[in-house]
Design a protein that fits this description.
65 residues, mainly beta, Immunoglobulin-like, 4-stranded antiparallel beta sheet, elongated
């Protein structure tokens, strides 16, 4: 795998962007931990989008705490 830039966005159900992080990553598997202060006072269904120069991946998640 080659290095590339990736952007992760987290949105609420209305599409409002709540969180964004971008960076250049080496090839391979990476992990990003979202901390409570990254999404304060947000609960319920959220959507996230991972975008690179090769893919755009859209998924949903549920925040319970």
């Amino acid at each position: 795998p080659e290095s590339m830039t990736a952007t992760l966005r987290v949105m609420d159900v209305t599409g409002k962007e709540l969180y964004r992080v971008s960076g250049s990553y080496s090839g391979g598997v990476h992990q990003l931990d979202l901390l409570p202060q990254d999404l304060p006072a947000v609960k319920g269904v959220l959507f996230y989008q991972l975008e690179t120069n090769e893919i755009v991946l859209n998924k949903r998640m549920v925040r319970v705490n």
